Amino acid sequence: MLSLIVFLPLAAAVALVAVPTSAGRRVFVWSWIAITAADFALVVAAWIGYDAGTGLAYEQNLRWIPSAGVGYHIGLDGLSLPLVAMTALLFLACAVYSLPNTQRIKSFVLLFLFLQTVSLGLFTALDLILFFVYFDLSIVGMYFVIAGWGHGNARQSALKFFLYTFIGSLALLLGFIGLYLAAEPHTFDIVELARANPLAGSGSYGALVLLAIGVGLAVKTPTVPFHTWLPPAHTDAPAAGSAILAGVLLKMGTYGFVRIAMPLLPDTWRHYAVVIVIIGVVSVLYSALVALAQEDFKRMVAYTSVSHMGYIVLAVGAAGILAGSDAQARSLAVTGAVTQMVSHGLLTAALFLLAGIFYDRRRTYDMGAYSGLAGPAPVFAGTTALVAFASFGLPGFSGFIAEFQIFTGSLASATVATALALLGILITAGLFLRVLHRVFLGELQVPDAPGAASGFTDLRPSEATAILPLLGLAIVIGVLPRFLLEVIEPASTTLIGLVSR
Amino acid sequence: MNMNENPAALIPELALVAGAVLGLLLGSWLPRHRQWWVRVLATIACAVGLAATAVAMRAVPETVFGGSFAVDTATNAVRFIVLAATLLVLCLSIDTVDSHHRETEFYVLVQLGALGTIMLVGALDLLLLVAAYLLASLPLYALAGFAKNARGTEASLKYYLMGALFGVFMLTGVTVLYGAGGATDYATLARTLPGASHAAVAIGVLAVLAGLLFKIGGVPAHFWVPDVTEGATTPVAAFVTTVPKIGALAAAYRLVAEALPAVSLDWPLLIAILATPSMTLGNLAAFFQDNVRRLLAYSTISQVGYVLMAVAVATRSDLALPALLFYLAAYAVTNLGAFAVVAELPHALRITDYRGLARRHPGLAAVLIVCLLGLVGTPPTAVFLGKLEVFAASIDGDLTWLAVIAVVNTVASLFYYLRWIASTFLAAPDREQNALVPAGRFAALGAYTAGIASLALGVAGGLVLPLISGSLLP
């Protein structure tokens, strides 16, 4: 079942290779939408069949490279299931969004189907090498998306993205090998490693392993100071690429913290939790301030992403500080972190798809060039405003649920840091309101673009169909979060149990 | 002493000898357009060798002919890799040498070179090692100048002079070790060398390793690699940069693991120090290479740096031998795959000539991407698994710093591999004469085979690793 969810897009891609390019774009786009919809339906079925509190479900453990301690071990629990669902939904949204105009559609569809398998695979992997394989392939896939369909300095940004995240992934690999060699018998299996806790009390060796893994995940997340690859990559990527990059690929880093770094290295994690909290807070504040100074809409969204990922880092760091807090608070922080991953995935993907509309209509993201867009494009303006509100954590949206839990859970153990991070919300709120004010209100003004019609057309059906469900789900989570939290909470409690060993 | 003289243990080697000798006789009688019979004979020789190796892999390891030649896991694995690689080279050379007036000579020399390579690995005696070194070298000097043009001749001469120089080093080393240890077979040397003069052992080991390092193409004996790769024809370049390295690396492993384990000389550090500049200089020199064959040449220099890591921890980690053998297999198919694409597009000499490849020949572009990303070590290709094993072995063997250097180098290498990959996606220039004219079917067949093998070996590594996880004979 789970393997089917993971490999359905790839299998479909292999089948589509045989279809000649001359078959026309409709064939490719509609089969793409059909495949992603089917995959999403399968994930929904898996969610319905999932019984929270039972730990790992849909587990599959096959021998792959036994002599190297590598297995094909996959499964779902409360940490991964929400992310799998979010991933499947985002790919569906990207397929719908790309319906009207994408060049070289065949390769684009194949690449996205490949990326979907890789992303779903990563969130289901319970083996370090399997995780690493998907982690690296996601970099390769996204490199080709940015280099092939981006604009501006696309190739340079793609190369920068590749080099940064690849360096990170190799650090990660060294850390994985460190874990592998520490366990007796040698194994890469996450479940077995979590049980064995091979680096308990190992001092500097454990610190080095955590450093390697931490750097690898921090680059991908990204946190300050490893975030510099992200703004150019986002700015120059196509809208669907940015949505996947921000919505799914960034979560691979934070997911790695809760799936690998915390349960497999509990001692070391607790020891260095303060460092992680500090990195989180710096990420939150620094990127929020930099976002405030941006003139480019997409760049601004990219920096707010770094800031929002900072909350997650803060939460997972605070969950490692035992002093001054009880297990319930720490578990709340972890639940908030996972909720934030889902919420941020939905909202940032929506924001990037909305940003793509600026480029689609007028070939520029420069906010100074636009104003008064609410007149000709009311739906666009309204949607953007709602997504922006949701994104800075207004009650009633998913972001609020996530951030509330993060702050409540972290306050006791990391009081000063949490208080400082609260300022981040203020800055984010300010910058989004300023953007809404500048771009949508006032005198109508749109920049000239060669070959574009005058005025600024509102959302097309395909764009609305892609973006509105993401916003809708964010509202559902904001108003009725139980269905999500009930899945996440047991897993957070288990995780906190592992960390406090 | 064990006087096992069972010729059946040497069927792969005998098949190559028979293929070469019969091929030479046959070729001198056949008219030029029928010389493909010699190619068939060479293919049969390789196929027989592969079949015999597959059988020998199940048999108990043994030493034959006075304990001078080991038939064990390492030998069998290298036999398999070398014979398969030779078959691939034969396949991708057909388009170039078919009906050539020295076609027979080509096949004969290739088989003799492969034979010498296999002998290097099995050798349990320094004198046999030197003989194998010569057998693995002399045919290649001739092959390098096969095209008989100015560049090829220069390459051949350079190759020969370097080879002669390092051959002399090697003989000197053998002499010194013989003087110090009183024997030339590894088993006796392992007993006597620890008690011998420190300086003599150091000099002897260094000199013998110098000879092997020349075959490996590692720094500082690497100067011939770029010139030969650029000057020789592409199939020859593919052969020379792949096959002899396999044998020489495994031979270096056997030498340090069997003759030097108890020597107080810090040879793991020595080899680690040789590995570091190999990967670093190879990468740095490849950075701004515009000529694809020179780029691949430097890439092979950096690749052997990674393999040398496994040699460095030969006695310190149980993971070293499978890591070495798997990396060699992965390197062979991946490197040959990249060369096969180059052979299929003989007019595309520079990176910029590959513009438009993804559009015009998507299959070849896919093979090129798989092979180049494979050389980087991106999963799930074979070299990734090889790198994983090598890194794990070197960290296990307390050479973590070497693994870190290798990681940094891997990242650096991305730059030039990606430069090549990126150019295949650019729009083709609107020139009259396009460089992307395919050479023929066979080089393409070789490219597809190698590309698929490179992926399959990575995914199905679980099936291969148990076969190479044995140990060397004592």
From TrEMBL, chain A:
It is found in: Endomembrane system; Membrane. Keywords: Membrane, Oxidoreductase, Transmembrane, Transmembrane helix. Its EC number is 1.6.5.-. It is a multi-pass membrane protein. One of its GO terms (molecular function) is ubiquinone binding. Residues 125-428 form the NADH:quinone oxidoreductase/Mrp antiporter transmembrane domain. GO terms for biological process: ATP synthesis coupled electron transport; electron transport coupled proton transport. The keyword Transport does not apply. GO terms for cellular component: endomembrane system; membrane. The chain crosses the membrane at residues 28-50, 70-99, 105-123, 128-149, 161-182, 203-219, 239-260, 272-294, 300-322, 334-359, 379-402, 414-436, 466-485. The keyword Membrane applies. Belongs to the complex I subunit 4 family. This is NADH-quinone oxidoreductase subunit M. It comes from Allosaccharopolyspora coralli. The lineage of its organism: Bacteria, Bacillati, Actinomycetota, Actinomycetes, Pseudonocardiales.
TrEMBL record, chain B:
It is an enzyme of class 7 (translocase). The chain crosses the membrane at residues 6-29, 36-57, 77-94, 106-124, 130-147, 159-180, 200-224, 236-255, 267-288, 295-314, 320-343, 364-387, 399-421, 442-468. The keyword Transport applies. It is a multi-pass membrane protein. Its EC number is 7.1.1.-. GO terms for molecular function: NADH dehydrogenase (quinone) (non-electrogenic) activity; NADH dehydrogenase (ubiquinone) activity; quinone binding. Residues 123-411 form the NADH:quinone oxidoreductase/Mrp antiporter transmembrane domain. Pfam families: Proton_antipo_M. Keywords: Cell membrane, Membrane, NAD, Quinone, Translocase, Transmembrane, Transmembrane helix, Transport. It is found in: Cell membrane; Endomembrane system; Membrane. It comes from the Bacteria. One of its GO terms (cellular component) is plasma membrane. One of its GO terms (biological process) is ATP synthesis coupled electron transport. It catalyses: a quinone + NADH + 5 H(+)(in) = a quinol + NAD(+) + 4 H(+)(out). Belongs to the complex I subunit 2 family. NDH-1 shuttles electrons from NADH, via FMN and iron-sulfur (Fe-S) centers, to quinones in the respiratory chain. The immediate electron acceptor for the enzyme in this species is believed to be a menaquinone. Couples the redox reaction to proton translocation (for every two electrons transferred, four hydrogen ions are translocated across the cytoplasmic membrane), and thus conserves the redox energy in a proton gradient. NDH-1 is composed of 14 different subunits. Subunits NuoA, H, J, K, L, M, N constitute the membrane sector of the complex. This is NADH-quinone oxidoreductase subunit N.
